[in-house]
Amino acid sequence: MADSPDESLAAREEVSSLLEQARDLQEAAASLVSTTRHQEDALRQRVSSLDSRINALLSERRGSNNSEKWEEELMRAKYILSEGDAAAFLPNKSRGGFLRMFLGPINVKANSKDVQLKVKQEYNDFRDRTALLFLCLPSLLLVLKYWVWNGCLPALPVQLYQAWLLYLYTGLALRENILRVNGSDIRPWWIKHHYGSMAMALISLTWDIETGPLCSQKQSQGVIELFLKWAIMQGVAMLLQNRYQRQRLYTRISLGKARRMDVVWGETAGVEGQLLLLCPILFVLQGFEAYVGILFLKTAFVGIGSNPEPAVTGISSHWQVITSGVLLIVMAVGNFLNTVQTLLIKSRIKAKVRKEKQASAAK
Asked: Over 181-216, what HEC string results?
């Protein structure tokens, strides 16, 4: 049934009214966005200028009389600037080629502190989930090797585990790069360490794992089993760090000695009692990592120089073994140096605090 002329006229008027309202709202929204952008640009300039002045004064006053008092006040101002909503207007840190390669030229810096803290919480949750798997998966492979597979690991389960390691290290590297852009204190070495771990996991996917008649003998004498044992030790260390050091970090944040975007990783250390537990584990882990790397190189070069048959590593390809061994040694040395550096910094801080207490008691 056709509409009457009056109904058609009313419908056209309503459509015209709705179209006019949409245009008005678009103009209002565009005006608001433009005004907000100008205000944000002005605020961003003020924040950047203030941050530059604070950094310049910190450099100038360092080493002068009463420098500790000046430095404490300036660090307090910097803390306020970096921990409040003004932190969203601080100059962006370089995103680096890794983020551009995976995510493209997008801005990953959050505009509010709440969103930044959610990014950090998601990173911590990811670490909690994967730390348990990091311990359980190699343990399961070793148990199945002797109870089900008669001492001979099939290639597929090992390669599936290495694929999971590639996913893990890629996920950690992406999250850590995003955290750095949003003001976290993650050291560049630990992100580079994950780049090396990614490379090793990718190379390990190409391992041609021995599955012949002498499979059990070769794997028991080779590096695959040692690598899995090292992974178990690293899983234990990750669980301890998540459990103990994060509690200490929360305490430091509440005391104003750390920022809310700071995170815990292998180079950090907890309070004195935790140091006695974690440091030996970290050093043993790093030493064992270097040992596995040296064993990779030793067995590969012995196999190349003296035996045309595959080296007794449980892996029948040489360049993968050599590259993996070099990566393991480099990462072990880097981890050791960064851990020692952190302990030296903590020692200097403790000596400074002790000196200040003695000076106050003398007064």
From this structure: HCCCCCCHHHHHHHHHHHHHHHHHCCCCECCCCCHH
